Amino acid sequence: MAVTPMTFPCEAVPYLLSTMDALVILLASLFGGFVYHWALEAPIPDLYAYFALGLIASFVQIIKLSGRGYYDFESATKPDVEFIEILISWLTTGLVLAFFAFLFKIGQSFSRGSFLVFLAVAPVGLLANRKISKFFIKRAVARGAIGRRNSVLLGDRTELDSLAPRDLLAFFGAGEVTRFALSSDSDPSVRRVDDTRTLDLVANFVRKNNSSEVLLAIPWTDAVRVELIRDHIKMLPVSAKLLPDAQIRTLTNYASSGHQRVVALELQRAPLSTIERIVKRGLDFSAGLLALIFVLPIMAITALAIKLDGKGPVFFLQNRKGFNGRQFVMFKFRTMTVQENGDVVTQAMRNDPRVTKIGRLLRASSIDELPQLVNVLRGEMSLIGPRPHALAHDNYFERLLQDYAFRHHVKPGITGWAQVNGLRGATPSLDQIARRVEMDLWYINNWSLWLDIQILVKTVFEVMRKRNAF
User: Fold this and answer.
1) Distance between CA atoms of 72 and 173, rounded to whole angstroms?
2) pTM, full prediction
3) pLDDT tens-digit readout, 115-136
4) Which residue in 128, 209, 232, 238 has its CB near the most CB atoms, within 10 A?
């Protein structure tokens, strides 16, 4: 494994480039409003209106170009400058501005001459900005001052050795990335063991560094190794792509399609985007904090009732797996006489003799789950997500169900899509856990803020029904 020191992450490049474009458009708007009237020796108008015009224009332009991957790091490292793309995008932005000016009758706030100067100056500035940005990014990449921190390169030693700097620039837009080499042993059994160790190292590295992408450089004909890798990384919430091997690179000569720099096979799709995670985390923290404040009196009364009901701690602590397979300690009110947290954990059943008197009431009303609001505020859980299971059950289900590990691509939740669709409580059969996994994966692949709100509302009615609560 080789790691090249980096001083500037490539993940920040899109934000930097879009901010610079916004600044160019804003200055062009102010320039048009000031210079046009100054040249005609006319009174200088209120420039606040032109400032607002620049903000709106930059928003429209950046949204359009972002959707085409214009600000992506890979696109920013291409040698050519996208003249036609910039001009066409700016022309349509101008048409949008003119349409809204006519629609809302605000055209009288701007002189036609100022607007035309703005439309003419802005694309010149955008083109110059793109050219200068590419020049400095290219120099930074060459010096090793910028590169990929969010990607991991895993591959066959022969394939890794065949990746020249030109290849790395084409694939990553960087001179080097963190790489891991698989075993070169000729004995299949030995090679499998060595590869498994390497894949464990990759998983630990991805979790520690919050990597978002694993790129594979192995021969496309090595199906056995591809399946081994897929099986080991499916728990990681990252995108996994199989890069062209040496033979494919020779045949295609880096032929690209659309905004894809090179042909690559996506073996695993990444889960929620960064923006989606921020939105979801915002809902979790705000709603979780309000809920905790609201239920604090109920929690205090519950704690007192548990102490009066008999000996034992108030809270039940158990290790669970969360996002990216990381372990955390989940909090619940104690409802049983036992506190299993080892290799053997017996699920609760109807009329379970281990459940205490107060525990039956707490489990039926789901009050025992309220302490998990603390897990939500700590960022270990979400309000909505796949329900976490005991480690013993996780390990057992992962061996039986191929897609089970994909549940760890998002944070576990206090409630979830499966729970509001009748799959709450214990899962005594493989068919039941398979149905729950199917529901959980549907939720992950179809997540939206509105879906989370729907699940929260449905959870209230599900708790009132007390279905499968024992």
Assistant:
1) 10
2) 0.61
3) 888 889 999 999 999 989 888 8
4) 238
Of the segments 264-268, 340-344, 362-366, 392-396, which one has the largest average pLDDT value? 362-366
**Chain position carrying tokens 């699920």:** 347
Q: Are 147 and 200 in contact (CB under 8 A)?
A: no
User: Residue 145 corresponds to which tokens in the numbers above?
Assistant: 């001052």
Q: 392: buried, middle or exposed (CB in 10 Å: 19+, 13-18, 0-12)?
A: middle
H/E stretch holding 382 reads strand 382-384
432 contacts 395 by C-beta, under 8 angstroms: no
In whole angstroms, give the CA distance from residue 109 to residue 46: 9
Q: What letter would DSSP give residue 239?
A: E
pLDDT in tens, 403-460: 788 888 899 999 999 988 888 766 667 788 888 889 998 998 888 888 999 999 999 8
Residue 315 makes CB contacts below 8 A (sequence gap 6+) with: 331, 332, 333, 334, 371
For 416-458, the DSSP string reads -TTGGGT--S---SHHHHHHHHHHHHHHHHT--HHHHHHHHHH
Q: How far, CA to CA in Å, does 359 sit from each of 32, 348, 371? A: 72, 12, 14
> Token digits for 292?
């905790």
Q: Cα–Cα distance between 130 and 86 in angstroms, integer?
A: 9
| Residue among 177, 146, 185, 206 at smallest CA distance from 408 | 206
Q: Which tokens in the block code for residue 306?
A: 């548990």
